[in-house]
Amino acid sequence: MKFSVSELVPRSFRSRMAWLYGCLSLLVGFPTYLYVSHIHQAQLIADRQENIQALATSAATVIAENLIERRREIELLAKTPLYRNAPLDSAEFRASLERLQHSYPHYSWIGLADRGGVVRAATSDHLLGKDVQQRPWFMSAQGGTYVGDLHEAKLLAQILDADSNDQPLRFIDFAAPVFDSSGQLRGVLGAHAHWRWAGDVLAVVMPKRAQALGLDFFIVNKDNKIIYPDRKEVPAAVPDLGRLSAQPSTAFQTWADGQAYLTKGVSIRNPVDTNPLNWRVVVSQPQDVVLADVRGLQRVILLTFGIGGVVFLLLAWLGAERMSRPLEQLTDIAHRIEQGQESMSFETAAQSLELRKLSDALSGMAATLVQRKHELEASNRGLEAKVSERTAELSRLNLQLEKLARTDALTGLSNRLKTNERLREEFERMKRTGSVYSVLVLDIDHFKRINDTHGHAVGDRVLKQVSQVLSRTLRDVDFIGRVGGEEFMVILPATAQEPALVVAEKLRVAVQQTPMEPVGQMTVSVEVQEASNSDVDDDAVVKGADTWLYFAKNTGRNRVAPIAEPSPAA
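-> structure tokens emitted (570 positions)
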């Protein structure tokens, strides 16, 4: 079943007014609701982005400073006189290492290995005498200070107590080369810091209400894997932060659990350039938590516009009813006038000044319309007569104009336009029926001499006389037109070349034998060309005739081309 939008619009004025005001309420209220909620939401998201960005930056700064501080501790300890000069089997090394471990409890193990990779001193004598030559921290630190990525230590895991969360022990390595006074490598000083230090560092910058606000802090390695925290419910990796936009509409990122989070990441400055960690701090907050205030504002706005809309519709209905009653009365009066009642009273229950003015205006309009009706009826009768008379006159003038447009004003013959039309007709007839026709082009000889000697008025008289001679000599079926100053064209329907030459000679002789006042004898040159079915258009036969005209002019004039010689009378 088909229906249109217009069918949904009420028909009565009261209903339409209420419907219109309802639509206006929606058109104003709904965009306002969207605008207000959008602006508030965008501002809220922007503020939360700034907060999260600041938290991530603070956390990244604190972690970087802590890493650099641990690196410097190992570097400075390796450069002390004890490590540069004392024998590697000195008991002072263990005491020095124990003091460093006590100053920073997160050091799970600190040891000194000789150039061969054998541990010569260690805290709690762990791994003492063990070969660490193949360990990354030992191999890398021989060339400079080393800070290693997070890893599990299998040897230490067998010695140290496991964590309470049943997670494997993980450490960060800090190592520095030890040189003697002459600059020769003596060994490598290395330390394993327990990964629990990451939580203690982040606790410094983490807000007290972080859990209530849904804030989560993550440390991510260069492979985008989460290395802190190491709880089982934590996803293995964070989304690709490179696709995040600064725009509030695209600020949320979907994580592995299918939930959207406001996410920001900040790179942690590398403690050493030779072996960059490329860690990042990532802070996230659930979308539902971020937009909780926006949802509340949207509910308030919807409720406000809902109540206002209902009140607005009620007022619109009551106002429309007061306006529509006198309008209905005026409509009833107008219908009765439409049915032919020419005398009606426009008294209504209108209370407003505008409606009373409308009633008075309609009353005056009705009286004027009745008067104009009678005048129009009388005028129409006279107008119809004039239209008929003018139509007949216009038809006659059009016929005259048509004739003038195709007639030469001087000679009364057809002009160039009419001649071209007749050529086109004969050409199309030949193409349809195969009936050939011939074209004669006549040119008055030495006509310029007449104009120069006797003046243009005499030249015009000569043209008229020549036109009359040619018209009298031709058959009724033949066509003649003036196509130039002293040039004429004759079209001979159903006439081949040979009969056309005879007609051409007849015309030439007639002109020669007829004295032309006041100049005496005149002659013409005539060129003849038969049309052919091979002609590409109607102009081809004229071009052929023009060729013969030049021939006749160049061989003495008063000739018919292609007849070689004029008649003896010439």
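Confidence is low (pLDDT under 50) at residues 244-249, 564-570.
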